Amino acid sequence: MQRSKLVIVGNGMAPGRALEKLFEAAPGQFDVTIFNAEPRVNYDRIMLSPVLSGEKTYEDIVIHGDAWYLKNGVTLHKGAKVAKIDRAARTVTSDNGIVADYDQLIIATGSSPIIIPVPGHALPGVLTYRDLDDVHAMLVAARAGGKAVVIGGGLLGLEAAAGLKAQGMQVTVLHLMPTLMERQLDPAAGYLLEKAVEARGVRVICKANTKEIVGSDRVTGVLLDDGTLCEADIVVMAAGIRPSAALAKAAGLDVNRGIVVTPDMRASDPDIFALGECAESHGQVFGLVAPLYEMANVVARQLLGEKDAAFEPKATATKLKVTGIDLYSAGDFAEAPGREDIVLRDPARGVYKRLVLENDRVVGAVMYGETGDGPWFFDLIKRQADIADMRETLIFGQAYQGGSPLDPTAAVAALPDDAEICGCNGVCKGKIVAAINEKGLTDLDGVRAHTKASASCGSCTGLVEQVLSLTLGDAYNPAAVQPMCACTDLGHDDVRRLIRSMRLKSIPAIMQELGWKSAGGCAKCRPALNYYLVCDWPGEYRDDGKSRFINERIHANIQKDGTYSVVPRMWGGVTSARELRAIADVVEKFSIPTVKATGGQRIDLLGVRKEDLPGVWADLNKAGMISGAAYAKGLRTVKTCVGTDWCRFGTQDSTGLGVALEKFLWGSWTPAKVKMAVSGCPRNCSESTCKDVGIICVESGYEIHFAGAAGLDIKPTDTLGHAKSEAEVIEIVAALVQLYREQGRYLERIYKWAKRVGPDRIRAAVLSDPARRKELYDRFVLSQTFAQVDPWAERVDGLDAHEFKPLAQVEMKIAAE
Amino acid sequence: MNECYVDVGAVGDVPERGSRIVRSEIGDIAVFRTTEGEIFALRDRCPHKGGPLSQGIVHGKSVTCPLHNWVISLKTGEAQGADSGCARTIALKIEDGRILLPLAAVRREAA
Fold it and tell me: Most buried residue among A132, A134, A540, A732 by CB atoms closer than 10 A?
């Protein structure tokens, strides 16, 4: 049978979804060719904001990787923009000369940002916010710091503003209307949102009418018609989008605001579909993902010959993806005759909820500050449920309604198998249930790993949990102990307890006695077990390099291209001419491409070939330097300021104490990395208050802080206590580190451990109880007698030599055939 | 056609639950040895981002890529779990404890 030729112009989320449906229902029936103007695969555009703010990377938001196109036999032309559709010849031609003929064509050209045609709109530095290239342009601009002006206070504009702020820019949002997001929010919620955005350090100017974008060779500011001038190094236009319909128009198709389609999604030529933001249906155009996916379903079903499939616009819901701002709006909340409001305000908690009712049905909902019931209200809107019986308590949400018909699990149970649970990744209920049953999944992480449901924006997490509880019944216990990995049912704490009580002293012994389900463990449990054994049996257990991640196995940091980086220890961040000279010589001798100062006051040599590592280490060793353990779940750096040595504000010898701490603690293995700092006075130049352990020197002695974080999470430290002498500081810190070594779960940082066990219990152990502290300290000292061996020197002397040379070099010419 | 094999070393030269690299004209080949003493060879490139599989943790008949933790089957080269992609496998022979790689196959692939 001749396969039907399907050509798609555009590679966004809507056509991606249509193809998924098509391949599921009729694999191999269509010969698919895609033209993508962007030079890449299909990614989740909803998640651009987390990429901008740095919470996710491009890799995290890819929907279909190259392998997916290969597997489904799709020809994807990346970076090929279609220039022409010839309906008579039934061909499309790209601007780089690729021609494809079609039996059926899908136009999915999406939309383009509206550029307000004010003077200066074409200046360099004026950006839009629509695709990954825009995000990259903003990130490049943000790296230089400075000021950003975002024109437009809608969903996209606010997300762009928050992202730029997170990247360190000073941001102003200009909004034409009196309140923010007026299309989704009523004025009261818009006002609360404005306060919240401003509290996050973003300036908001409403009723701001842009008159001109100022600048000579690039943008320098934005001038408003009331004369206000906002300085700007970049300007982001986020004033809205307009369907990209020019290609369709040139081909003679009916175009109004978008490409006009009938409910079967066909344009004015029955062999051509329009899909996504470029399509106009029922006189409306659409920008949110739910209706676009619904369109995609209809297109797929039409292609499969289901003539009845039709698109009907439904109510939509919006959630603002700015961390820390809880906002939800759904349906229609314009005031109209016959409509009534139920409003709940709790100014002290910053909560505002408003429901719009019409004929005892909910037609709109706006929630700010507390949005947990959003999906439930949205469901009431979609089902047009009669709420007369629960009107009095409706605004308090689902928990106050009682009765089984509203039980969320029952609602999920009632959903058909093809009901979509995860909108971002297009996962339906049936697929999740099947994965749970077939793969024996028991928790959210398992479902995410196998189906990607709730792995993107996470707003469907609750639904996925309900599907889990429905499928597993009582066997689903979200509070249950998380097993270490798929190899065992035991959690980390149980495994550690049993290692000690059963005196298990090797990985095979643990796996045998504790009933490991896999033959040799996996890359998750083996490093954890190896650490627990190193910690619990110092001097007895022989470290198993094969159970260590490559960095800890060969004591260097692997880079993306398979080379390594080398960081020598620089005690307390202090170095000397001799060390610097040795580093410079090594860099030249081994042609090391990049030399960079690290955040921990040391020097990083990047791009070292693996075979060169022993040579590099030998030369550094000769100059007295040892491994900085920049790769280790262990002590990394002790950052210091110059203290009483030089600083006119210094109260104690912070540099000396930092060096002493580092010399005492180096070489120790811990559940996760440990970074420390010592500041010479409360001005805190070493930034001690965001470290795992931080010391702040004061006139009367030393304040000891712990459990800070400044990475994925940002958290200031808690105060552990006060010490009078350096010796006391070292004893307390060693005891603290030992307690963490004994109680922490593998990969659990100090702040997470402290949160789990409670800072008070830690304080009680290492501060209030001198006997307990001494025991911990003694155990740490014993462990250090085995741990303080420079791993570089060992390898320079020939340990693991096989790691650093190839098994063979095969010198055969490649013969042409 | 008779395959042409080349001796790259002894089974014992590859550490158990570990790997060694063979450099070749067409790029590195990772040779793995499992706990059971089986030997496998794969192109040293993860199907995800080209990470050097030889540097990963070997467990069972799989290796976990050191860059982003994809788990690759040593037998088939296929990515396990939700990830999809395949590393090229190289069919080798063991004779008298020596590892023999089929260079003809390697050449064809490169050609």
Answer: A732
pLDDT of residue A406: 47
Sorted by where each starts, the structural domains of chain B and their CATH numbers stand as 15-90 (2.102.10.10)
Q: Which of residues 33-72 of B touch A (CB under 8 A)?
A: 34-35, 47, 49, 51-52, 55-60, 62, 64, 66-69, 71
Of A239, A259, A276, the one marking the end of a domain is: A239
A266 vs A254: CA distance, rounded Å: 11
State pLDDT tens for residues A404-416. 444 567 777 777 7
Range of lowest pLDDT (A68-72, A254-258, A543-547, A669-673): A68-72
Distance CA A257, CA A262 (A): 14
Phi, psi of A423 (to 5 degrees): -75, -35
Residue A807 resides in a domain: no
> Which domain range does residue A84 map to?
4-111+243-303
Domain count, chain A: 7
Torsion sign, CA atoms A632, A749, B53, A507: positive
CB contact under 8 A, B25 and A812: yes
Give the tokens for residue B44.
Answer: 């040293």
Task: Report how far apart, in Å, the C-alpha atoms of A13 and of each of A36, A295, A303, B70 are.
Answer: 12, 11, 18, 25
pTM of the model as a whole: 0.53
- Which residues in chain B have Cβ-Cβ distances shorter than 8 Å to A812? 6, 24-25, 103, 107
Q: What is the CATH number of the domain that holds A334?
A: 3.30.390.30
Give the tens place of pLDDT for each residue, A452-468: 787 666 667 778 888 88
Contact call for B55 and A450, based on CB within 8 A: no
Contact B67 A815 (CB under 8 A): no
Is B111 within 8 Å of A816 when comparing Cβ atoms? yes
The CATH number of the domain where A171 resides is what? 3.50.50.60
Smallest Cα distance from A32 to chain B, Å: 21
Asked if A218 and A267 sit in the same domain, the reply is no
Answer positive or negative: Cα dihedral of A60, A64, A70, A72: positive
Domain presence at residue A486: no
Regarding whether A120 and A182 lie in a shared domain, the answer is yes
Mutate to test the interface with A, among B7, B8, B11, B21 (most CBs of A within 10 A): B21
Beta-carbon separation of B20 and A806 below 8 A: yes
List, in order, residues 6 or more apart from A587 with CB less than 8 Å away.
Answer: A595, A605
Residues from chain A contacting residue B13 (CB–CB below 8 Å): 802, 807
What is the complex's ipTM, to 2 decimals? 0.91
User: What is the pLDDT of chain A when averaged over all its residues?
Assistant: 89
Interface A-B, measured as beta-carbon pairs within 8 A, has a size of 113
Same domain, A513 and A606: no
